[in-house]
Design goal:
There is one protein chain. Helices cover 28% and strands 20% of the residues. The protein has 567 residues and is an alpha/beta fold. The strands form 4 sheets. Strands 5, 6, 12, 13, 14, 15, 16, 17 and 20 form a 9-stranded antiparallel β-sheet that branches. Strands 1-7-3-2-11-21 form a 6-stranded parallel β-sheet, covered by helices on one side. Strands 4-19-18 form a 3-stranded mixed β-sheet, with helices on one face.
């Protein structure tokens, strides 16, 4: 078993065929390996992000380019998938995210919190986080009764392709076929199971068979494959006008305010946390559950951020040095979604940045040595500016909306699949929630005396500011949503396609809601959970119980009310 170029020497005794080798698919394959399962991984690209010869990033018709990133930024064809562009942020979903919330239509998850939590630790380890999820946030509790502390882990090696390459080349139970894009899912005559998948090999194609198939090709590509299969089987996946491709979500991310701490020590509480010289976590604010419910808010997280690297008024030598290096190197290594915030603000004030560096040579040198691992420092980041003023970045939930969707368009993309038509939509509820969440945070900060919040625009302009920044495409959530009803969901609580006994989805596209958290950690946790479930099925032992929530009257009305239609 090894990594091979092309789909030629495929083992005939594999237990599971996985489509896609991104962070989620790779973690799933390694968990299967640990459990003794033989896995075949089919990857469209080669060993790195530049290895796909025909990739132009033009494989979709995007309805509103202001709302959705180009596919060249949002997707990758390579061993490691979007791990090549991933920022490494790992955040567990909050308990409220899985609940039925009356003010958030289509918000009920079919699984309980205890169905997910046992797998978070393994997921964090698979994604190269060096700490667990209990980083202390108790010193933030006094901010206010309506605000809670939250922790985001940061992968110290976010490019999982590099960190896992040697392991996969030596694995005895995993075979990876590079340059092997899947272009068809082939069903049996009754349409009840996947018989094989078709892999494009240059001008030819190859049929690959396996007892079980797991699609882990990213939210958009996974949905694209199912939409193509639905053309031949129009009643599958909830029907032609059903949930497949609908409820497309991401997050609202940006900044509309600055936060001014009363003391530099307060600012350092929210600095990046270091362990053995490595940045491994960041602490944040979130809105408490009861305020979300009483004020009809979507889940929102906020944290102080050094996003305005181009503005030298922060007075920090380390930050100015970071800007100068990024500008010289052309932002290599900066995830595309953050590139605008780091380098695309003009004009660049070079002289002021150099002056900051010269004024603080010791702090700048210390930060640089720590960054490259020559100096080890635990605790908070040493880069807090002299004036404890930061941009307050937010990361907010995008509510499920059946009109936000992806569908098939005319023509073929670079893989040979039907092109996608992407219509990502943000509503008034999404934008208004961001504004109200900031108001909650502002009054709590000011009551505590620990900080104050100042808006970057007057009240009448804030809505437009949030709307202008509302764009995603990196977090591809919701288009193969999980549920208990075939008419309202694509996969069941075990992530198995309702209509096909041997097809499973490992992707954030199964999430019914987006929460405030980045999706990679939860998608990986669900993939590890799926691997253990499939292992239980293979050994004919009783599979782990999949506890489902009882459907409430409200949930049913939101999904299968008589005469209900998403259109």
């Amino acid at each position: 078993m090894t990594i091979q170029q092309g789909c030629f020497a495929v083992p005939d005794d594999v237990d599971i065929c996985v489509v896609g080798s991104g962070p989620v698919g790779m973690s799933f394959a390694r968990e299967c390996e640990r459990l003794g399962l033989k896995v075949l991984v089919l990857e469209a690209g080669g060993v790195d992000e530049f290895s796909f010869p025909n990739w132009k990033g033009a494989g979709a018709d995007i309805v509103d380019w202001r709302r959705h990133a180009p596919l060249r930024d949002a997707t990758r064809y390579a061993f490691g998938g979007t791990g090549w562009a991933w920022a490494g942020i790992c955040v567990p979903f909050d308990p409220i995210d899985l609940d039925l919330r009356p003010h958030v239509p289509y918000s009920n998850w079919p699984i309980q919190r205890n169905e997910i939590e046992p797998f978070y630790s393994a997921a964090a380890q698979a994604l190269n986080c060096i700490s667990d999820l209990d980083v202390d946030g108790s010193d933030l509790e006094s901010v206010g009764s309506e605000i809670a502390p939250s922790v985001a882990l940061i992968s110290v090696k976010p490019n999982v392709a590099i960190s896992n390459f040697e392991h996969f080349t030596k694995s005895r139970t995993i075979t990876v076929c590079l340059h092997s894009p899947v272009i068809d899912i082939n069903l049996n005559d009754t349409g009840t199971e996947v018989r094989s998948v078709t892999v494009a090999n240059g001008d030819q194609s190859r049929i690959v068979r396996a007892p079980c198939f797991v699609i882990a090709a990213g939210g958009l590509r996974t949905t694209q494959l199912l939409l193509k299969a639905q053309r031949l089987w129009p009643r599958h996946f909830g029907g032609e006008d059903g949930p497949l491709g609908r409820f497309y979500m991401g997050h609202l991310n940006g900044y509309i305010s600055t936060i001014h701490f009363s003391e530099a020590a307060e600012a350092r509480r929210f600095g990046s946390l270091y362990r053995n010289g490595q940045n491994h976590a960041r602490r944040r604010y979130v809105i408490r559950d009861y305020i979300q419910l009483s004020s009809r808010l979507l889940n929102t997280a906020c944290w102080p951020s050094d996003m305005f690297l181009t503005d030298p008024s922060h007075g920090s030598g380390p930050l100015s040095a970071a800007f100068l290096i990024a500008a010289i190197l052309g932002a290599k290594g900066i995830p595309p979604g953050l590139r605008h915030a780091y380098l695309e603000t003009v004009p660049w004030q070079w002289k002021q940045h150099l002056l900051n560096v010269f004024k603080q040579p010791i702090r700048t040198t210390e930060a640089a040595l720590q960054r490259i691992g020559l100096v080890s420092k635990d605790g908070a980041s040493p880069q807090a500016p002299v004036n404890p003023k930061y941009v307050l970045q937010y990361h907010a939930e995008h509510a499920p909306n059946p009109d936000s969707r992806v569908a098939l368009a005319g023509g073929l993309d670079e893989l040979g699949l039907p092109r996608l038509r992407i219509d990502l939509r943000f509503t008034d509820a999404d934008i208004s929630s961001v504004l109200h969440a900031h108001d909650v945070l502002k009054r709590n900060l000011e009551r505590s005396g620990r900080a104050r919040l100042e808006y970057l625009a007057p009240l009448e302009e804030r809505y437009a500011l949030v709307q202008e920044q509302a764009t995603d495409g990196y977090h591809q959530i919701g288009t193969t949503r999980m549920g208990t009803h075939r008419a309202a969901s694509v996969v069941d609580p075990s992530c198995r396609a309702h209509d096909l006994r041997n097809l499973f989805i490992a992707s954030s596209s199964v999430f019914p809601t987006s929460g405030q958290a980045n999706p990679t950690l939860l998608a990986t946790a669900l993939a590890i959970r799926l691997a253990q479930h499939l292992s239980g099925l293979k050994t004919k032992a009783r599979a782990p119980a999949l506890v489902t929530k009882p459907e409430t009257a409200t949930a049913v009305r939101q999904t299968i009310e008589p005469g209900f239609s998403y259109s």
